[in-house]
């Protein structure tokens, strides 16, 4: 009997308030999504940042984010935020761990759920909204970010390193046609290392994900490097397959 009385007194109850059912005595907490947007320009790994347009920290550099609306799931909210900035849909998005420190936002208690996005810079160029004063920065050389956004970027980078060591995820960053040297540069920039050219090419080609084209890139290579395209059908079929492009990936995942 005593246990039953305790539950009736202490547990929140659902009450009808203004025609809506609410849990009584509970504090409201805001939920936001923040997008860590990675890109690759053919030579460098980059991060897309915006200048915050409102206080606090107005004009400071920030990740693109927004509050979740009542009708949205987290992923739908992240897709909306990304489209507002880049105009792109169908972009690769992956959620990482939430940030919930009570004092992380000085205005209101806000839980942030970050997503990292991979986009082809060439696709976004004409669609980038000018409303947010967005700018690409080198991943390892960007301005100080507001709140805990720097921690989000580091967590996203570590997650991307882990995922890219096992799955062909970095192809999302490349244009439709690319060369093997471009692909190798992309991996080397992410892992901040140098891979043996022959071994890397052999390992990538052994996946049978690439289709060699007749054209060559003669601007960046004396002999001319063949262009390749991704075999989309094989790519999606093998996306979750463990295709280890990176030798001894464990040393990069710490």
Entry summary:
By secondary structure, this protein is α+β, with helices and mostly antiparallel strands.
Explain this structure to me?
This protein is α+β, with helices and mostly antiparallel strands and 254 residues long. The chain has 7 helices and 12 strands. It folds into 2 domains: 30-165, Nucleoside Triphosphate Pyrophosphohydrolase; 170-252, Winged helix-like DNA-binding domain superfamily/Winged helix DNA-binding domain (Arc Repressor Mutant, subunit A, Orthogonal Bundle). The radius of gyration is 22 Å and the shape is elongated. A hairpin with a 4-residue loop joins strand 3 (30-40) and strand 4. The chain has helices at 2-10, 74-86, 121-124, 149-166, 180-191, 197-205, 232-237; strands at residues 14-17, 20-23, 30-40, 45-51, 61-62, 64-67, 92-95, 110-120, 135-138, 178-179, 210-217, 225-230.
The count of DSSP E runs of length 2 or more, i.e. the number of strands, is 12
**Alpha-carbon distance between the two ends:** 53 Å
CATH topology grouping of the largest domain = Nucleoside Triphosphate Pyrophosphohydrolase
Q: What fraction strand?
A: 25-35%
Architecture of the largest domain, according to CATH? Alpha-Beta Complex
């Amino acid at each position: 009997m005593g246990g039953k009385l305790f539950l009736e007194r202490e547990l929140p109850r659902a009450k009808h308030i203004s025609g809506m059912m609410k849990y009584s005595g509970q504090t409201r907490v805001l939920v936001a999504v923040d997008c860590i947007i990675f890109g690759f320009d053919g030579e460098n790994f980059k991060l897309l940042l915006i200048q915050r347009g409102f206080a606090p920290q107005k004009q400071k550099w920030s990740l693109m984010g927004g509050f979740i609306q009542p009708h949205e799931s987290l992923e739908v909210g992240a897709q909306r935020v990304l489209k507002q900035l880049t105009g792109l849909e169908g972009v690769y998005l992956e959620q990482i761990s939430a940030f919930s420190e009570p004092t992380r936002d000085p205005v209101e208690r806000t839980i942030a759920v970050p997503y990292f996005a991979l986009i082809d810079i060439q696709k976004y160029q004409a669609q980038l909204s000018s409303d947010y004063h967005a700018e690409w920065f080198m991943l390892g050389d960007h301005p100080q970010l507001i709140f805990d956004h720097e921690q989000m970027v580091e967590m996203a980078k570590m997650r991307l390193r882990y995922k890219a060591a096992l799955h062909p995820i970095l192809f999302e960053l490349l244009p439709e046609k690319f060369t093997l040297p471009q692909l190798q540069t992309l991996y080397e920039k992410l892992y901040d290392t140098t891979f043996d050219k022959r071994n890397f090419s052999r390992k990538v080609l052994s996946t049978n994900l690439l289709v060699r084209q007749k054209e060559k890139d003669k601007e960046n290579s004396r002999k001319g490097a063949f262009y390749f395209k991704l075999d989309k059908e094989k790519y999606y079929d093998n996306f979750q397959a463990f295709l280890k492009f990176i030798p001894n990936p464990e040393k990069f995942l710490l």
